[in-house]
């Protein structure tokens, strides 16, 4: 097994992607400072108007839209506990933005994940050739991203994510 390497920026990785980018999220709470204001506004009752793209569209959405425009399939899976946390309700409310950028998004409750082997870290898989692990602290603070290009490891995670995707519920059929 190869040692994970420090990852370049996400935009660079997805710019080099040709076929697929798969994202797995497994945490119920994230403590990412750049989301603090939006999360606080959500808790105070603010909701984005999807029709007012200028109020919510950002560089991440542009990066995803560019990849999808090149023919890259971008799939996101979220594995969540029940009842969901306020943070998951926030993510759920923001998911139409991801979909507008071109992502396909599915949700899987931990109850329905029984029998599946879930990766220990959030991750992205690029073209079934590279894994980018996102490491978070116990409280949800981002620690670092690491890369792994070991073919056996990548295949193992790609296979796991495919099984998760098949069992997960499309966003428009899932409620929190």
Account of the protein in words:
- This protein has 176 residues and is an alpha+beta fold.
- 33% of the residues lie in helices and 24% in strands.
- Strands 1-7-6-5-2-3-4-8 form an 8-stranded mixed beta sheet, sandwiched between helices.
- Helix 4 links the parallel strand 3 and strand 4 (104-109).
- Helix 3 (59-69) crosses helix 4 (86-101).
- It starts with a strand and ends in a 6-residue tail after the last strand.
- Residues 10-175 form the DUF6879 domain.
- InterPro entries: DUF6879.
- This is DUF6879 domain-containing protein.
- Pfam families: DUF6879.
What Rg is obtained from the alpha carbons, in whole angstroms?
16 Å
How would you spell out the order of helices and strands?
A: EHEHHEHEEEEHE
Helix content: 25-40%
Structural class of the secondary elements?
alpha+beta
Q: Report the strand count.
A: 8
Order of strands, widest sheet: 1-7-6-5-2-3-4-8
How far apart, in Å, are the first and last alpha carbons?
A: 39 Å
Strand content range: 15-25%
The averaged pLDDT comes out at 96
Q: Please mark out the parts with pLDDT under 50 across 5 or more consecutive residues, or reply none.
A: none
Q: Biggest sheet, open or closed, and with what strands and sense?
A: 8 strands, mixed
> What is the overall shape?
globular
> How many helical elements?
5
Give a short overview.
This protein has 176 residues and is an alpha+beta fold. The chain has helices spanning 10-15, 36-43, 59-69, 86-101, 151-167; strands at residues 5-6, 20-25, 73-80, 104-109, 122-126, 130-136, 142-148, 169-170.
């Amino acid at each position: 097994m190869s040692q994970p390497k420090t990852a370049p920026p996400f935009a660079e990785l997805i710019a080099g992607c040709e076929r697929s980018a798969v994202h797995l999220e497994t945490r119920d709470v994230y403590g990412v400072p750049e989301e603090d204001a939006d999360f606080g506004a959500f808790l105070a009752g603010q909701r984005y108007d999807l029709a007012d793209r200028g109020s919510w569209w950002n560089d991440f959405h542009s990066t995803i839209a560019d990849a999808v425009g090149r023919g890259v399939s971008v799939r996101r899976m979220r594995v969540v506990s029940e009842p969901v946390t306020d943070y998951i309700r926030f993510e759920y409310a923001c998911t139409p933005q991801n979909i507008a950028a071109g992502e396909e998004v599915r949700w899987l409750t931990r109850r329905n994940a029984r029998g599946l082997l879930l990766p220990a870290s959030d991750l992205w898989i690029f073209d079934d050739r590279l894994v980018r692990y996102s490491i978070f602290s116990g409280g949800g603070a981002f620690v670092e991203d690491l890369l792994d290009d070991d073919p056996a490891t990548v295949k193992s995670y790609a296979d796991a994510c495919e099984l998760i995707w098949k069992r997960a519920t499309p966003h428009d059929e899932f409620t929190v």
